[in-house]
Amino acid sequence: MTEIQAFAREFLRDPLNVAALVPSFAPLCRQAAAPLPETGDPVVLDLGAGTGQVTDVIQEKLGGRGRHIAVEFNPRMAAILAERHPKVEVLCDDAHAVVERLLAEGVRSDLTVSGLPWLATAPRRGRSIFEPLARLAAPGGAVTQLAHAWIRFFPDARKVQRNLEANFEEVVVTRTVLANIPPAVVYVARRPRVR
């Protein structure tokens, strides 16, 4: 079974927790990983990593530098991810729980790439995942969130953007990446509003 087939199978099993029918294509992944520092030993958090398309781009850009933590809730997809990327810290866990653990350990992320579905970014216990991600961000760090272009205009998507804007001073939406199925955008958030 190919990775695309495995991804599609998992989407059909659990469409609310798997964000897309097929994995993100390389142009979208490059857009999401664009804020990754070119020097030093950055810490990168890869949320909703799926079978590893964004992970591929991050690993290429890191070139053996830094620390790369990939989080995937689906155990079958996490197993594929761990097999493809033995040098990446792959965690099969809830993104919220991992972020809270990293904060407790004092970790700071230079880049967090989120491929989480909208439901996973919605507020839990009164706050969205973007609030702890803002606290997790290193000085000069960024958070990127992938989104299907067509969903941006729905009320839930507007809530996601408002949640980002409530936690970051700068939120920019990239141009639509038409070379993705379906076409998608990346929200790029910088300068956390740490409370």
UniProtKB/TrEMBL annotation:
Record's keyword terms, sorted: Methyltransferase, Transferase
Source organism per UniProt: Actinomycetospora rhizophila
CDD domains per UniProt: AdoMet_MTases
A GO MF term: methyltransferase activity
Start and end residues of each Methyltransferase domain: 44-141
Membrane-spanning segments: none
Stored Pfam families: Methyltransf_25
InterPro entries per UniProt: Methyltransf_25, SAM-dependent_MTases_sf
Name of this chain's protein: Class I SAM-dependent methyltransferase
GO biological process: methylation
